[in-house]
Design brief:
single chain; 5-stranded parallel β-sheet; 289 residues; thiamine pyrophosphate; Rossmann fold; two-stranded antiparallel sheet
């Protein structure tokens, strides 16, 4: 891998500098703690899927993406799209930790008139690039953004996270076909592959496998991340991206729904259920240990 390739992959790292794993772990714990507390305060929300993708979003904002808190609309910034918009608490928590808005706002999740609603809102929340919520539309927006940036000769990248259950939406595959057709090598999709959705196991509700073969057949570069809740594995996956190929990239990241909370892990019932006070305290204890 040549010098220019390393610089492109890791814009904030010096050549040869290692990922600050301990810092990321510490940040991730705080972010997951925030997720639990804000959903508890709201008495509604989606803890399972927020926790499963929290490590990946943390990695993106602290290790990979070129973003500016001081200038959140910088035209040369990388863009992030949370296609699984119900996992908004994970994104909000990262944005608050980065300093896009005061952490105090996290306490008012889903409250009438508050900044942070149940799904990301690009019109009102600093740092949110696309309003999402309707599954399949996030990646569709991401494809359009990637094509637009390329037409403007802008070297910024688009990163989009999808849920694995979201792959049941036909719109995902129309967007994926367009991304390959236009050879959008500035687009990186990450599948939060936790195997569960609101009604149970994906394979029982509507099987999506084999995801890798499907994306390959649509013309994507496919990378498998065996543990999307481990920063070493996440780092390896992103360092494997070769954007010299004229095709978009998808990282299929095996994750655990409810990651970090013993009684939530791999439990479909925690897809959209807020913890009570006792559960909140136990969850935070699990996360911070």
């Amino acid at each position: 891998m040549n010098l220019f390739r390393i610089l492109e992959l890791k814009r904030y790292r010096l050549v040869g500098e290692k990922m600050n794993k301990q810092k990321l772990i510490s940040l991730s714990k705080e972010i997951k703690k925030n997720i639990i507390e804000m959903i508890y305060e709201a008495k509604s929300g989606h803890p399972g899927g927020s926790l499963s993708c929290a490590d990946i979003i943390t990695y993106l904002y602290y290790e990979t993406m070129k973003v500016s808190v001081e200038n959140p609309k910088d035209p040369n910034r990388d863009r992030f799209v949370l296609s699984k918009g119900h996992a908004a608490p994970a994104l909000y928590s990262v944005l608050a930790e980065k300093g896009y808005f005061p952490k105090e706002e996290l306490k008012h999740l889903r409250k009438i008139g508050a900044l942070l609603q149940g799904h990301p809102d690009s019109k009102h929340v600093p740092g949110v690039d696309v309003s999402t919520g309707s599954l399949g539309q996030g990646i569709s927006n991401a494809v359009g953004m990637a094509l637009g940036l390329r037409n403007q000769k802008n070297n910024a990248k688009i990163y989009v996270i999808l849920g694995d259950g979201e792959l049941q939406e036909g719109l995902v595959w129309e967007a994926s076909m367009a991304a390959a057709h236009y050879k959008l090598n500035n687009l990186v999709a990450i599948i939060d592959y936790n195997g569960l959705q609101i009604d149970g196991k994906n394979e029982e509700v509507m099987g999506v496998a084999p995801v890798d073969k499907k994306f390959e057949s649509f013309g994507w570069n496919v990378i498998y991340c065996e543990d999307g809740n481990d920063f070493d594995k996440i780092d390896q996956a992103f360092l494997s991206i070769d954007d010299t190929q004229e095709k978009p990239t998808v990282i299929i990241a095996k994750t655990v729904k409810g990651s970090g909370v013993s009684f939530m892990e791999d439990k479909a019932e925690w897809h959209g259920q807020a913890p009570n006070e006792e559960e909140k305290e136990k969850a935070i204890k699990d996360i911070m240990n």
